[in-house]
Structures are given as structure tokens and as C-alpha cells.
Amino acid sequence: MGIQEQYRSEAAELLSSGEVKLVIGFGAGSTADRRRPLFARTPEESEKLVLDQNCIANLTTYLVAGGLLTDGKKVAVFLKPDGIRSLNILIAESQVKAEQVVIFGFAIENNEVTPLEGRSISDFAKLGEKLRTATPPPSVQEEAERLEAMGSSGRFEYWKEQFSKCIKCYACRQACPMCYCRRCIVDVNQPQWVSTSSHTLGNFEWNLVRAFHLAGRCAACGACDRACPVNIPLRLINYRMGKEVKEAFDYFAGESSDQNPVLASFRQDDPETFIL
Amino acid sequence: MAKIGVFVCHCGENIASNVDTANLVRKVSEHPGVEVCAEYKYFCSDPGQETVKRAIRENGLTGVVVAACSPRMHETTFRKACAEAGLNPYMLEMANIREHCSWVHSDKEKATEKAIEITRSLVEKVKRNNNLKPISVPVTRRALVIGGGIAGIQAALDIAGAGREVILVEREPSIGGHMSQLSETFPTLDCSQCILTPRMVEAIQHPNIKVLTYSEVEEVDGYIGNFKAKIRKKSRYVDIDKCTGCGDCIQKCPVKKVPSEFECGLGNRTAIYTPFAQAVPNVPVIDTTRCTYFKNGKCKICQKTCQIENCIDFGMQDTFEEYEVGAIVVATGFQIQDTTLYGEYGYGRYKDVITGLSFERLASASGPTSGVIKRPSDGKEPETIVFIQCAGSRDPSKGVRYCSKICCMYTAKHAMLYAHKNHDGRSRIFYMDIRAAGKGYDEFTRRAIEEDGAEYLRGRVSKLYEENGKLIVRGVDSLLGKPVEIAADMVVLATAIVPQPDAREFAKRIGIGYDEYGFYNEAHMKLRPVETATAGIYLCGACQSPKDIPDSVAQASAAAAKVLGLFSREQLEREPVVASVSDATCAGCFGCVMACPYNAIDVRDINDRNGNLIKQVADVNPGLCQGCGTCVTFCRSNSIDLAGFTENQIFAEIMAL
């Protein structure tokens, strides 16, 4: 039995026994090589679950949908390692209770889907350590290094050009599991800190605010990047912020679910290089 | 409709010389909403304040901006003036055109422009101010004194004497601190123990003082009037309530060769010990690193010797106690600098090169030599002693930059004591300057020179080595401009006073500031010398800066007076500058709960009418909130606002620029 069939039957079992109220997985998409999220509430619906190398989305985004988990019931979700990282962050930030989530873990390597052992987040403690030392995808790293070599004025020009494309559709925000605020700061208009129109200043404001709000919280799943309709390489910004946080505080976001959020916590030996 | 009064102060010449105040008044008068704009030489003066009050009454002002100095100087003054004129005191803003403008710029035209911007920006802010009411909080009228040296003891006695409870915490097995180690004290040469022990006994017997020795403050939470202190009582392995202090266990302890910390290693103690004979409380502790039982699991001779059942308990554990206190006095003292960093002085290499503190023990009647000054190496009485002052102090290259303050005096005292005990002995003192400012101090050093034959040599020592049982001290007499070489029997280094090794870490734990060396910072060097920047926490003794006994005691009494002033009221009025959370938008990440340095934020459930949980939100306790704004800056969903500094006010301020 392949992993897809195994997870399908397990999902059906969980649903029929009432163990979980919902299974969030992947279903057929609009084209042969695209998958869209599938929400199975009955054993029959779970028959439509698909698991193959095209299942790349980070489904934790759907866990933070308003009110989904307030009844205390369990939800099962299909997660890749980056999704598990996201889940760790969401648990640390009190958005999800660990005991409410059943994980169908899988990894995609060389177009092969392999299962990940364990169903509860506590089963994935070792994965965090592994991800911490893993090298980022070469495409991201090479591009990030190219940008770093540009110098600050070169980079500024680069991002000015990239952000000039932004149409403020907020697809990045919608795709990101960390953007769970009921009201985003960009929607605050009394006072209006972030300008809403799509000119360079407003675009800079929005993208920088988002970068800062993701500092030490990004699981590097790339959802924002994939969601962007004008192809702004958002994951490069988040990669850089992640690197800064790792260098300054030796902190890798989502390594475990009992991490203290880095910017909210304080250690006696934190670097104070900013104090003159 | 806003009616704002703007009052531009000249501050004598402080502002007027560098800001064109007439121009400032003219420009600000034109700003929308400004009803009155006036200038005056000193608005903080009585007639100045009267002008403000009259303007409020006559024009029905809704807000006031005083363009003058920092709010730290006169915000209270003008708030009071506003209140007296019937305006809510929180409808006042200070536009700081002195520290932020006239004092720091030299181009008058540009400084004027900046002053106009600053003032306008505060006008925009004050338009959005709200009437606020101060928050009343109860005061717990019990003090925590940290450190049981002379400063801590004095502060505790003064507070207790005024009828308030005190918790006195000391981490060593006995109170007494460094003063208990000293032989005689300058400038009167009275015996240190003789004047200190009555105070120690008074402290432990005082009905209002609870002395916790061998204990450390682990954690401090809360704020002025309402602190919570968690104290770790380290296990003594001896029951403090049962022990009679007979000392049998100490007599019988087989581990007898432990270098005594109290004797600076010049004498020995046992593994179960009291640091010195007059220890208060007179209850021993077991040093587990030395005790045979703790090392090998066998011995327990002390327990077998002890006449009292279960008095010595090897299974004793550290215990924790929590106390609610309204004020904290920090009197954690100092240590002496490790002098091994001066290779040229040979400390640690030659046994007869000792520190001033070791000399105190040699000269002390209760010390290891019963007060006879003997060389540590062979027990001979030295014929010549060389004293080296500033062995660490006033030396930016290797030691510390500051003057340790007490060394000139104690070195003169050492020379005197030596002369009194050994009439033929010679004291040769290398010094940089003799600093003897203080009542009776200069007379004291003169007496050392004129009556007791102390020979002062102005200069530094460059090298010290041993030859034929003598310590050869090579230096320079800078007044003669000649090198000198002295064959000494003993060398005493006046080592620098430095903060406790854990001073910085402890300051962070209780939330007070420290300077570049680790000495604790006072709120204002001249005008608030015993207060810290944290309200309700006070300082005394050498934890603030090097100090002698008279200064430490004076500062301790001053700190006690501050504490008693605080305790004179049952309620404390607090600034209503507190944060509040919007339930509707709070995302419940609770980063603010963790980020809050005052533990003022809790998690609150929001339920529907049937009691089902809808969501959890952050909730600020206004009694605990100090208005620092950390949570506001942390909150990603912008759900926290700070009264007096609301988003709308700050935004208006910025947009007015």
C-alpha cells in the first residue's frame, strides 16, 4: 500500500471514529500538476485525498482560521517538514494547542514522497534539530548571496524595483500561516501608519512591516513567494531576517513547540551591541 | 474645539540665547488651535506659573504646552499649575526646546526652526490628550534590605526603629560584611568589631527585623509599594532554630585545614564552621565542598557530637520564601580586586606580599596572629613594611580608572597600627597623592607621618623580587627624581575596591542600572543619590561606589529616610500612563505577556453567554503596568494602546513635523 492510500484509510478511520472533526489535506487541482487544499469531514470525503510530489502548500494556514479550534476538538493535517516548523511556531504563539493536531507528515525528496514517523507534534522533536542544520535550497542561498554582494545601495535599488511591482493584493499575507491577526496593522486607519496606495513608499512600508513581523517567526515554507502574483522574491527577505535572528540570538524559528518567541523573550546574555 | 495655550520659556539665557523666541511665538500663534501664545523669562517661577493659570481661566484653555526644559525637570510643576487652574493635569505637555534643542545646537536660525517644529508637534499631541486620573495603589509597609554589611544593618535598624518591618537578607552565614574583618577604623582607631557587633546583635534581636542569613534574593517582581521577593534560603545543614551555638561540632570536625575566607586565607577553618567568633547568628554551616561526609559518604562526627536531636541534618534542602515588600534597599557591598594582575608586585607569588584586607586580619586582635603583625611566610615580625597605594586604582591601563577612596586612609592607619605594635618598625609608603578629605582625615594622615613615623614616598613601584629572604622593592621617588630600592620584609598592596562579581547579573535580576564598572547607578548623582531609577529601590554603601564606613552609614540612613517617607502613606498615587488591550483585535499570541518586564499582563478568556470559550486575549493589570510601552511596540496587530501616549497622539506628533 502506498503512502497516499495508507493516509487515506487512516484519515477515514479518524473521521469515522470521531477522533478528529476534520482532515486538512490535498485534493485534485485545476491542472494535472496542481493540488488544492481538501477539507474532509466524512470518511467518504477522505477518499479524495491526494498525496504526491505536487503537494507543496503549507496547510497550517488553515489551522488558524477563526474559530476552527475553539471547540477543543481535534483536526488532522498533512504537513511537510516546513509545515511542522510552522506548527511549532503557532503552538509557541498560543494559536494552536498541540493536543488538538494530528499530523500526517511527509517529505518530498527527488519527486518521491516518503512518510514521516509520528502523529503528534511531540514525535517530531528531532526534526527541529535536523532542520536547524540543514542547508537552505541552493536557489535561495545563491540569490541571497548575490544580493548581499551588491552592497546596501545596490540592494536598495533592487528592492525598490521589486516593490514597485507590488499591487497590495495581500496574497502573501493570506497565504502565510504566521499572518493570523484578525486585523492586520495595514488595515488600521485610525491612525493610518501604513499608506494603502500602491506607490513606492506605501509598498516599502507594507513589505518592511511584514518582514519585521516575520523576524524570528518565518518557517521558510515559501508560501508568500508562491502566492505573489507579480513575482516579488519575498522568501529572500525572510531568509535574510532568519539569518539575522540566528546570528544575533542563536535562534531557529520553529525548532520546537516550547521555544519562547525570540523578540518577546529576554536572556541575561543577549547581545547588546545596539547599546552604545 | 481645541483651545491651546503655548508658553515659551527663555530659561534665562539657556533657551533665549540660541532660539529666537519672538519668532517662535509668532509662528506658533498662527498654528491652528493655538488660542494664546506667550513668552517669559522663567515660566517655572511664581509669576510665570501665575501667567499660565490666568491664561487657562481667562481663555478657557483645553490644553497647555510649555515650551521649556525636559519634562523630567518641570512637568510636575506645570501639571500642578494646570490642576490649580481647573484643568486636568494630563492636558499638559512639555515641549523640550532646551535639552533637545538650544543646548545642543549652535546655529540659532536652525535651532529656532527646530524649536518651532517641536512645539507644533506637541500642540498637535495635546489636542488629542484625554483627561486622566491618577491610579491609587496600596503600599506594603515592609522593607527588604539586601546585604547585611554595615550599610544594610544601619538601614534595617533605622527603618525598624521607626516601627516598620524589615527583611534583612545576607548571603554569607553571618551578617557583618567587610567591616567585621577590619581591625581598627580610621580616623579614631576604635576597634571595628567593638563598634559593629552591638549593631549586629541589635539587628538580630530587633522585633521588627527578620534576619535571613545564608540566603539570596532569587527574584523580584512588582513595583514600588508592591514588590514580591523570592528568597532562597540555602541549606546550612544545621537547624538554625535548634542550634545553641555551643561550637562542639566545630571542635570535633576532622577537616581542619580549610583556608578561611574571613581570614583572607591567613588562618584555617573547619568544614562545619562559623566565619568568625562573633558571628550573628552564631550558628554554623557545613561547607559541602570540604565536608568528608559530602565527599565520601562517611564521617558525620559533627552529628554524633551534637547534643541536640536532629539539629544537624545532612538531608537539608534549600527552601524558598516569598515576601511582599513595599521598598527595597540594595546594600550588596564590594569586593577587592584580584591583584595578581600586577605581575610586578608579585602578589600570589610571594607569600609576604599581601592585600590591605589581609593586613587588617594580621592587625586584628581576633585574627590568626592575635594581633601580632607577622609575616605569613615564616611568622617573623617584619622590620620594614612597604605599602603600595593605588595598586589597581587610578590605573586605566591595568586596573580601574576611579579612585577607591578609602586606601589613603587605611594605609595611613596600617602604618600607625604597625608603629604602635612594633616601635622599631619602618613603614615606607609609595603614593600618588594623599587624598584625605573628610572630618578628621587630614589630621589623621598628618599624625601617621608626624607622630608615628610613616615615610611617604611619592612615586610608583616598577618591580619587586625576593632576595635573601627580603623583598626588594624598586621604584621611583618622583619628588627627588631618583630611583629607590627598599629591602622590605613585607609588602602591603592597597588594592582597588571593585563591585561584587555578580553585581551586573544581580542588577538585571532586580531591575536597576549599573555603570561601566558594575557599581549601581543612582537616579541623580547630586540630587537623588540614594534612589535608583527604579521607583521603590534604594541604594546604600559600596555597591554604589567605593565608600568608607561613615559615608556608608550616612547613606544607609538616607536610604532609610526615603523608605520611611514612602511608608508614611497608605496609598500611593501612580501615573495613569498605563496600557490597555483591544479585545476585538487581540490575536492572542501573548508575546506581550512574555515581553512585559513587570509581569503586568495576563491571559483572559472571552466566553459566549453559555460559557463556551470564544477566544483568549491579553489583559493589562493597571495596578502593575508601569507604562513603559514595551507591549505596544511588540504587538503586531496594533491592539495595545498606552494612555497619555496613544497611537493617535504619537501619530499626530510625527505628522506635525
Characterise this structure.
The complex is a heterodimer of chains A (276) and B (657). Chain A has two domains: 3-133, no CATH class; 138-249, no CATH class. The termini of chain A are far apart. The mean pLDDT of chain A is 93. Chain A is globular. In chain A, α5 (138-149) crosses α10 (234-249). Chain A has 276 residues and is α/β, with parallel strands linked by helices. Helices cover 38% and strands 11% of the residues of chain A. In chain A, strands 2-1-3-4-5 form a five-stranded mixed β-sheet. Chain A contains ten helices and five strands. Chain B is of the alpha/beta class. In chain B, 28% of the residues lie in helices and 25% in strands. Chain B has 18 helices and 34 strands. In chain B, the strands form twelve sheets. Chain B has a five-stranded parallel β-sheet. A five-stranded parallel β-sheet of chain B has the order 20-27-21-22-23. In chain B, strands 2-1-3-4 form a four-stranded parallel β-sheet, with helices on both faces. In chain B, a hairpin with a 4-residue loop joins β8 (184-185) and β9. The model of chain B has no long low-confidence stretch (mean pLDDT 95). Chain A binds chain B through residues 67, 70-71, 93-95, 180-185, 188, 190-191, 193, 213, 260-261, 263-266, 268, and chain B through 505, 508, 584-585, 587-592, 594-595, 612-616, 634, 636-639, 647-648, 651-652.
- Could you say which structural class the secondary elements and strand pairing of chain B correspond to? alpha/beta
Radius of gyration of chain A: 20 Å
Percent of residues of chain A in helical segments? Answer: 25-40%
Count structural domains of chain A.
Answer: 2
Q: Tell me which CATH architecture of the largest domain in chain B applies here.
A: 3-Layer(bba) Sandwich
Number of β-strand runs of chain B: 34
* Terminal residue distance of chain A: 63 Å
Q: What's the total helix number of chain A?
A: 10
